[in-house]
Amino acid sequence: MSQVRDGWAATGSGGADQGTVRRANLSLLLRSLREDGPRSRARLASDLGLNKATVSSLVGELLERGLVREGSAERGAVGRPGTIVEIDGAGAYGLGAEINVHHVSTRAVDLAGVVVSERRTSIDTRGLEPAAVIDRLVELVEGTLADLAAFGATPVSAVVGVAGLVDHARGTVSVAANLGWQDVSLAAMLRSRLADPAYLLDVDNEANLAAVAEATPGDPERRDILVLHGEVGIGGGIVADGRPFPGRRGYAGEFGHMVVDRDGSRCGCGRTGCWETVIGLSRLIELAAASEDDLLRSPVLDLEGKVEEIARRAAAGDEPTLVALREIGRWVGVGAAILTNVLNPGMIVLSGYLGEIGEWIHDEVEAELAAGVLAPDAGGTRIGLSTLGFSAAVHGAATVAIDHVYDDPTLVPRADHALEVLS
């Protein structure tokens, strides 16, 4: 890992050009303000190991790009108090979107991570051709763009999450078993329908994005985690040392297709006994619904409605529901133990529907984890519950979208350049 100091970067290749170093320092400073809070220029210089002149120059450029603003005088300072520098949320916007089995959704956030627009449509994506689903998503994206236009803004980037294997280089959904998709050129289709937008547009796996949403910047408890994201299917995401780990080609995290029961049910991927066949929401409904006319099997209830009904029954002490939940929890723990033996994360976060039912399956998961992990005390791995519900993936998509600015603040033009473009 290179260290950036006073305009120079030490790298294995013998240095970097000035522009690259400048962008790295701008990123370093902007991320520091997000993770450690507003500070004076002097404090920033001390904390980052940069000299005061360099920090003043960097802050000046970030001010010109509208990414930071000056606040009140620093309290408790010795001598002449410095002016606080803080993130300016209105400096940039990111757009996240998601395609899942039962819905499409969008979310836009500002540079400070504040949500400025949210849209969602329930839709049975399995009953439609990919083009029809993409058209529905584009309707939401266009509505979100209109919301941003009300601020006089456009997104710096857009990130779309989808429940399937994604080829990042091509922007293609290679396989999405629960959607019935194969080799769908999602990025190209979106760009075409959005009239080839100027902003960046990326495609990623929804569970990877859910993992990003759980990896809170600056929180040491969330630096090494696995996220198990459950809806109709089961996906996963890996965060290592605070950063997403996509794998060699971006396919890491397909936890739901670990084979855990070779004598079990056939999975949507065509194989038998995948983990998602024993912990997916459809399996819980199968176990908990007393009869074919049970409300849980009714199309009247959407995905969230069914989970709310299960939670209501569990809270009321309904024994068939509690038995079904214990069975799901047992299988979640079996798979969690396998993952812990291989990866030893600090925490496994149950997300999506699994997070919503977490209080009723937690004990079974912990018991199986303790029994199945070779290391003492389950290797230090703990089970955590997401508080983001079914919005985890789109939340993560928006986070990744705005993170492009933190990676490279020069994506946002200086004020004088913006005025030249407008004129």
TrEMBL record:
InterPro entries: ATPase_NBD, ROK, Tscrpt_reg_IclR_N, WH-like_DNA-bd_sf, WH_DNA-bd_sf. Keywords: Kinase, Transferase. It comes from the Bacteria. Pfam families: HTH_IclR, ROK. The keyword Magnesium does not apply. Residues 29-70 form the HTH iclR-type domain. One of its GO terms (biological process) is regulation of DNA-templated transcription. GO terms for molecular function: DNA binding; kinase activity. SUPFAM superfamilies: Actin-like ATPase domain, Winged helix' DNA-binding domain. Belongs to the ROK (NagC/XylR) family. This is Putative NBD/HSP70 family sugar kinase.
